[in-house]
């Protein structure tokens, strides 16, 4: 659990408090759903959003900071993320999430709809307890709206052969970058950081978010291709046309287009051929370059912040978060 | 449109402003969904929640009241209701809603999930714009939670032969009464009513809500039985066991039980037989008595309020709202 942060015991400890708070809040009048929700949140993945929140909060020297309040706000970010994941799994019919059966596959779409709604409610409760009377309530509402619009944009461009790298960047800007940006901003703000730090936090969060999603989308083209028993190119086969293939399409539209007619019907071999084609046409290299550029943008901005041990930690953590194996 | 309130031009006019505001807020980056949402909300049914809100606001003499703010709050109540309806239709696979195709049947469950989420977001925006810094934000979050728990309770008791009248009342208390109660309370509060009026408003709203739902559930057993081309007993056939049949079951369990084995497989004739059985066993009469008692409770409480023209309107409106043809 949370082994990702084991080299940063301070962050890890705070994230464990977030998990405990989430478990305490996810009380619902159905034991099965409650257990599933608590398992779901206790796996927690890397808890990227709360982690970024605390990394930025750590940049502020403030002895009067209310740690319990920070824990609640960090939990609110993870709750919002969890609610969108639970609803996403309905759309994708995903059997698994974080290595466990998704709420939808365990309990069906009906329960998943209400369970996601329920998690949204806990998210609002946490916001109201910590931000009532501040402008951050409406910032949260705006972010939630952007995230949903990003999801809708992605859903509408599904199987759309006319999708472009530009539209892709817009969709992931809402879908992923918005919430990571908010996480960094809230960390800076609620720890008492000044305007300048808040501005930098938003900017850095946005770059990290974009890079994070591009790397994620590259992985969908490169990982597990030689494991015969696992489904491959899952996003592509659901009509989600991401950066690697969009860049390859820009390089040689005639070669790519035939695969976009009915990706869900392609055989495993055809998928492998397609992945090789995307690679040959520079789709992977191009995406890696874009992700690396976005990472560098984030790191350059981080290095502009006042020198401190916590800034170094943020710099390292950003590199680790965005360093994956290809 | 809104013909239900045509004898109350003051209420009707306010409700039209609510509709206009809702239409203005439901802007989304997909024209089809936006149009569907706007059609959905412009039908508006009776707009029971905003109407109750204004009926209670009307009880307060307050010249400084901010009408625009009241319009926004009334819209927030209808938005919350709409969001739950959109998600309910996913669960019920309802082809129609308010005489129009449901969002789910027009666009599929995927779009319906996000569209409902989107409407929740607009609801929060409206709350934040009007109640930031007040205790009503957390009251709203609590109500939303109760509504969801009510829905979940109902879903879990689907096809449950052990369901009881008591559990039924608990489920509708969350599912329907909670939001009607909140609507009355917010009307009293935001128009500047005192504690006593607020307490009465909550109580009256709760009784109206319970009566409203019981009447609605009676209708499912009595209306359209002679129209051969329409589906009948739709709730029952989806395993939603409501008051009429639960009372009939208390009267003669052995007679009712066989029908509860697999209601979705019953033929039209068997459904008609079942409806007749429920009536013969006093399920309809009993439910009507309970609904009438709840209505009387509401009216008695209304009559305790200080005498005024607007109190008379509230009394009449309550009777009209709860007066249906059986």
TrEMBL record, chains A, B:
GO terms for molecular function: metal ion binding; prenyltransferase activity. Pfam families: polyprenyl_synt (PF00348). Keywords: Magnesium, Metal-binding, Transferase. GO terms for biological process: isoprenoid biosynthetic process. Its cofactor is Mg(2+). InterPro entries: Isoprenoid_synthase_dom_sf, Polyprenyl_synt, Polyprenyl_synt_CS. Belongs to the FPP/GGPP synthase family. This is Polyprenyl synthetase family protein.
């Amino acid at each position: 659990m949370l082994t990702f942060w084991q080299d940063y015991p301070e962050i890890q400890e705070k994230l464990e408090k977030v998990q405990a708070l989430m478990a305490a809040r996810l009380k619902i009048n159905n034991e099965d759903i409650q257990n599933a929700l608590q398992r779901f949140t206790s796996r927690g993945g890397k808890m990227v959003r709360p982690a970024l929140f605390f990394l930025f909060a750590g940049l502020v020297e403030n002895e009067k900071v209310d740690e319990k309040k920070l824990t609640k706000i960090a939990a609110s970010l993870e709750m919002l993320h969890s609610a969108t994941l639970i609803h996403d799994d309905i759309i994708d019919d995903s059997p698994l999430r974080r290595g466990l059966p998704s709420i939808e596959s365990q309990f069906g779409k009906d329960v998943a709809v209400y369970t996601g709604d329920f998690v949204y409610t806990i998210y609002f409760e946490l916001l109201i307890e910590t931000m009532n009377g501040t402008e951050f309530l409406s910032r949260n509402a705006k972010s939630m709206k952007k995230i949903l619009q990003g999801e809708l944009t992605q859903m509408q461009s599904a199987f759309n052969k006319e999708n472009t790298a530009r539209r892709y960047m817009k969709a992931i800007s809402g879908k992923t970058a918005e919430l990571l940006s908010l996480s960094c901003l809230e960390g800076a703000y609620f720890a008492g950081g000044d305007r300048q730090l808040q501005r930098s936090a938003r900017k850095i969060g946005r770059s990290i978010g974009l890079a994070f999603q591009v790397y994620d989308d590259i992985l969908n083209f490169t990982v597990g291709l030689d494991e015969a028993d696992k489904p491959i190119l899952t996003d592509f086969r659901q009509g989600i046309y991401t950066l690697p293939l969009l860049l390859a399409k820009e390089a040689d539209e005639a070669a790519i287009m035939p695969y976009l007619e009915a990706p869900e019907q392609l055989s495993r071999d055809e998928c492998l051929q397609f992945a090789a084609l995307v690679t040959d046409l520079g789709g992977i290299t191009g995406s890696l370059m874009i992700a690396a550029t976005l990472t560098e943008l984030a790191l350059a901005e981080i290095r502009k912040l006042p020198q401190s041990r916590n800034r170094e930690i943020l710099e390292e953590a950003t590199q680790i978060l965005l360093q994956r194996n290809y």
